[in-house]
Amino acid sequence: MTSQNKKIIFFTVVGLLLYKLTKGKKTMSNKFIKFKPLEIEKLQFLEAALIANGLKDPQLNFALAQLLLETGRFSKGSNVAKLNNNYTGIKFINKPYQIATKGSRTPANEQTEPTTRSTNFYAKFTDANGWAKDYIRILSFGAKPILANTITEFNKRLKANKYYGSTPEIYERLLKSFLAMFN
């Protein structure tokens, strides 16, 4: 049995036990029941970091939907998350209030001249807590996505802050599809 299979079995058993113990009450373990065991582990870990830094529902769920979108559901192609502990593609701004270092380079289509500019790199965080703090900081300025009460409003506020380059309709559709996966 491979290490991956052992992890899957372990987290499945733990999830079932927690579900049985809570008699189906809404907990982190069954909120993410539609996800694979390793995705559940990541979601619970990142949800805990966001909660520890003050994020509450409904914005917590909006943030989780966004990080699923930005990481491609923690896919193998999500190097920004893996290399930088950066789950939402936050750029490095080289300011003292951003507790991060210069991480990996952004894709060429996101870069501006000069190419050595700090924002041409992702912010690299030492841990998920550092990422969560900076992400909440970003959600708290400009159009203040942190104050949104619906996923549509959250998306509009993100776009107003120039948080992403995609078309708002596509980004919102993807956010909604991930949000719908939460029980």
What is this structure's SSE topology?
Elements lengths: L2 H20 L5 H4 L5 H16 L6 H13 L7 H6 L16 E5 L15 E4 L3 H12 L11 H10 L7 H12 L4
Antiparallel strand pairs: 1-2
Helix pairs in contact: 3-6, 4-8, 7-8
Helix share, percent = 40-55%
| Sheet/helix structural class | mainly alpha
CATH topology of the largest domain: Lysozyme
Mean pLDDT score: 88
- DSSP E strands, number: 2
Task: Label the CATH architecture of the largest domain.
Answer: Orthogonal Bundle
Q: What top-tier CATH class of the largest domain fits best?
A: Mainly Alpha
Strand content: under 5%
Give the number of domains: 2
Characterise this structure.
This protein is mainly alpha-helical and 183 residues long. It has two domains: 1-31; 35-179, Orthogonal Bundle (Lysozyme). The protein has helices at residues 3-22, 28-31, 37-52, 59-71, 79-84, 128-139, 151-160, 168-179; strands at 101-105, 121-124. A two-stranded antiparallel sheet has the order 1-2. The chain is globular, with a radius of gyration of 17 Å. It starts with a helix and ends with a helix.
